[in-house]
Amino acid sequence: MRSAHRVIGPFHGYPRMSTATPSKAKYTADDIEVLEGLEAVRQRPSMYIGGVDAKGLHHLLWEILDNCVDEYLAKEADHITFTLHKDGCSATITDNGRGIPVDKHKKTGMSALELILCTLHAGGKFSKKNYARSGGLHGVGSSVVNALSEELVATVRRDGYEWEQSFARGKPQGPVKKLREFRGHGTSIYFKPDDTIFRRVQFSVETIKQHIEDISYIHGGLKITFVDEAKNERIEYSYPDGIRAYLEKLTTEQQRKPVHDQVLAIEKDEEAIKTEVVFRWTEAPDENIRSYVNGIRTHFGGTHESGLRSGIVKAVKNYMEVHDVKVKGVTIGGEDIREGLIAVLSVFHGDPMFQGQTKDKLNNPEVAGQVEGLVRPALETWLNNNPSIADSIIGRIVLAARARAASREAAADVRRKSPSSRKLNLPGKLLDCRSKDSDGAELFIVEGDSAGGTAANGRDSHYQAVLPLRGKILNTESLAVSKILTNQEVTNIVETLGTGIGPNFDIHKLRYSRIILLMDADSDGYHITTLLLTFFFRHMPELIRSGKLYLAQPPLYRISYGSEFRYARDDAEKEAFVASLPANRKYEVQRFKGLGEMDAKQLKETTLDPKKRMLLRVDVDSQIEADRTFAQLLGKDASERYKLIMEESTFADDVDL
After folding, report:
1. Which of 49, 525, 550, 564 has the fewest Cβ atoms nearer than 10 Å?
2. Which of 233, 506, 522, 648 is catalytic?
3. Choosing from 162, 164, 287, 520, which is the catalytic residue?
4. Full DSSP string of 123-185
5. 1 in any annotated domain
6. Which of 447, 573, 575, 605 is catalytic?
7. Which domain holds residue 183?
């Protein structure tokens, strides 16, 4: 189970607020500080790696690994060795590339190795001379890892010798040393993250394996060896078939039944951009596109994904028009064409514009047209050359369109009902919306009567409903429907949604277009959210498959500075905003421990208003993995839960006790 970011309405950060009291602090030139070297990274790590949690910790590994992959992209390396040491909190990553230069840099007088590892925005990837395409673009990756490491040792093999230089928290512990004669070439980086920066410094073996496997699929021909010293385990990752093999793996893992066996693979390598894409249609009720840029997973998509979607839709519509495929009584839309699609898209670009240092989204506007221009004619030709496959795909699309039309018709039937019938058998605690139209209506399931009252006062009562829960709902894992419906809180949810439950579930009877879970950001809130997710996953899975279930994201912080204040969703956003304030500017940070600490106005402007809020849509990457996780977390077998806790406890960021 995962939560995928989805912005509902334009989001430009939480609003900046003003108060009447002006700041009287004296602010002069003497208050301006200049942070030397890598001190800025240590002061504000979240600006560079997204946070000091488990994700930020592993981001250090990815930065060094990306540099090794860049040598492969430059056709200078074909093998990477990734060693996780016995302590579980240090690693060595080695490639057989050219080796980082160790000679003196004319302008600074430093060795190139020290310059790269100790200076922000220093590297060989700003021009196209040595790296035509690379994942590292900003010249900050290696130096950030160095700054946030208790110890880092760089070993370089080039020019007939082996060289070494050691660092501690970003500072060199001496000059580059020539160790011995050596015939090979490459770079090896050992580092141990600084436990004064990170909450936990223990790496996750499974996270590393998954990341390495993804990279090996995307870079067909690259060999990566993973060594786990604690388990005395050595695994070779190499997939010559590349993303075609990756697509087959994803199809099997996600239990998606293909509509056609043959996979469409498209590839084009131009000077400015290289594009590889493979896709097929399945009988799954949703689309799944995994995209990469220069080998880096773009979790939030971007212009390359937009081009792929547009190219597929236009190709199918053109095919249907040319072959005079007409469907009486149904209009085929883009979402009908893409339903069931599973695809892997990999783009290599000489000058990618990522959204932030963590590179989760591609912003190059020209890429959309380039990808669309490649996909559209190739797909049209493929459909024309494979008429039996085309018939299967078009049939799948028509079924999706008819199902969507039936859903709209069912919703219209609900809207035609009288107000009294719409309110019939609804729980008394429900604060329903006034609209009789399910399209656009939202239900907030809220923890507790107090937070429910705040949400009710801050909502737009025309289309937003609120259902408060009293305490924690029943653990529905492994329980029969008859047992579940004896619980009043569960019954309230079922009656409010109007869909029925289990085998009697009918998505067409859903009274709201979105169900949003709004809980406190503490251990109790997380537990209630997990119990609700278990309930929906086990007994109303169609809500998740249809993209109807969301998690609200109320802010964790309120930052007051002078006469203004600003909200921040998480530590990374707080750190980034605080860093943007003038040096020595006085500010105060308030952490909201629960929804009860916010008034109705604050909750509305940060969490309820579609123009300003951020929602997380609940989605399932792997049905098997989600099933296993819920069984471990909430199943009857306590030994599985104990095992999970013991294995994963070191990666927990914050635990309220």
Report:
1. 564
2. 522
3. 520
4. SS-SSSSS-SS-S--SS-HHHHHHHTEEEEEEEEEETTEEEEEEEETTEESS--EEEEE-S--
5. no
6. 447
7. 39-237
Average pLDDT over residues 393-405: 84
Q: Which long-range contacts (CB under 8 A, 24 or more apart) does 448-455 make?
A: 448/595, 448/596, 450/595, 450/596, 451/518, 451/520, 451/594, 451/595, 451/596, 454/595, 454/596, 454/598, 454/599, 454/600, 454/603, 455/518, 455/595, 455/600, 455/603, 455/608
Q: How far is CA 505 from the centre of its chain?
A: 30
Of 373, 408, 443, the residue that ends a domain is: 408
- Stretch 534-538: mean pLDDT: 87
Q: pTM to 2 decimals? A: 0.60
- Cα–Cα distance between 614 and 651 in angstroms, integer? 25
Asked about 286 being catalytic, the answer comes back as: no
DSSP string, 509-575: G-S-SEEEEE--SSHHHHHHHHHHHHHHHHH-HHHHHTT-EEEE---SEEEEETTEEEEESSHHHHH
Q: Is the dihedral of CA 632, 633, 635, 637 positive or negative?
A: positive
Give me the pLDDT at residue 404, please: 74
Q: Does 71 qualify as catalytic in the annotation?
A: no
**Consecutive H or E run containing 83:** strand 79-84
Q: What pLDDT, in 10s, does the model give residues 561-607?
A: 888 888 887 788 888 888 888 877 888 888 887 777 788 888 888 88
What total of structural domains would you count in the chain?
Answer: 3
Residue 538 has pLDDT above 60, yes or no: yes
Q: Decide if 524 is catalytic.
A: yes
Q: Which one from 229, 241, 495, 524 is the annotated catalytic residue? A: 524
Q: Taking a C-beta distance cutoff of 8 angstroms, is the pair 468, 452 a contact?
A: yes
Greater confidence, 429 or 640?
429
Residue 447 bears catalytic tag: yes
